[in-house]
Amino acid sequence: MRYVYMDNGATSFPKAPGVAESMSDYILNVGTNVNRGAYSSSFKAENIIYETRELLCELFCFNKPENVIFTKNITESMNVLIKGLLKEKDHVIVSSMEHNAVMRPLNSLNKVEYTKVLCSKTGELSIEDVENSIKPNTKAIIMTHASNVCGTILDLEKVGQLCRKHNLFFIIDSAQTAGSIDIDINKLNADAIGFTGHKSLLGPQGIGGFIVNDRINNEITTLIEGGTGSLSDREIQPDYMPDKFESGTLNIPGIYGLNASLKYLFNQGVNNIRDKEINLINKFFEGLFNIKNIELIGKKTSTDRTGIVSIDFIHNDNGLVAHELSKDFGIMTRSGLHCAPSAHKTLGTFPKGTVRFSLSHFTTLKEIDYAIDCINKIANK
User: In terms of pTM, does the model score above 0.90?
Assistant: First the structure.
């Protein structure tokens, strides 16, 4: 059977060339911890970690490598940022397209209030609605850069301008965009950006992080404290970066893998990757528009969207469709609510959900043609 991977919104596959080799090199030839020993292999790992911070600075147009923090994933990153910043009686603004990586931490803070700005049926945000939601106690705006359900990219540049105007902190969830779309932290007026290594950054699972400017860093308290290899004579957490947020042993094999994937991205060029994905989306849409008994969810063009395409099979159970695509045709997708119930309510697909096809620049035109043919067979059998 032919196998076609179209679930890059969950995690990318294949990973970037060099990722496995870099991780294997660490495990086989280095293997030591960092900030714990004065020997050459430890120094080698420390250099790779610092270089990876520098690469992430280049990716996000940032200039302080010490303010690049590693976590195990973006969910942990968003928890650190949200729970470290918001205090009792604070108010925060989010969009109705948010992932549970934002909504669940917010809902766990009982004495923090939030306003959810309703997006359109295509997932687009009204800046006027955002500004009208600002209250005297509003402290921050926290938003996804792009929907993990329908792929719509939110106009965060205007949101950032709004934050600057009203002196609000701005935190961005870049899970679906980092690596496939240019992100300039300064252009967006963002104070913090959470990222994950295993999606469009094309790295391994288990490595993510966030970047913070000094303005928001001075306001955030730590979520996890412990050994850092520094100030070991004291039983209090260091307050300098990155030690403030990096307690315990880092996922060094994951950082080695991320280091290799970032170098691949820079070699390919993020803009070139973006152009290829847009061409794939256009090809996919061209075929989907001719298929009956399906509904394309969200924007109907490739403008301001990622490589995520959600489909509702009108007369079928979407979960069974995803199973059939995998079992009978070897096409790997994700069905359901994608950990974003609010987004599905906004798009009108709750509680049925959708079948989500998420492309990457590794996807081929032949795979697009094959997927279109299989979708047509299932929708009209």
Answer: yes
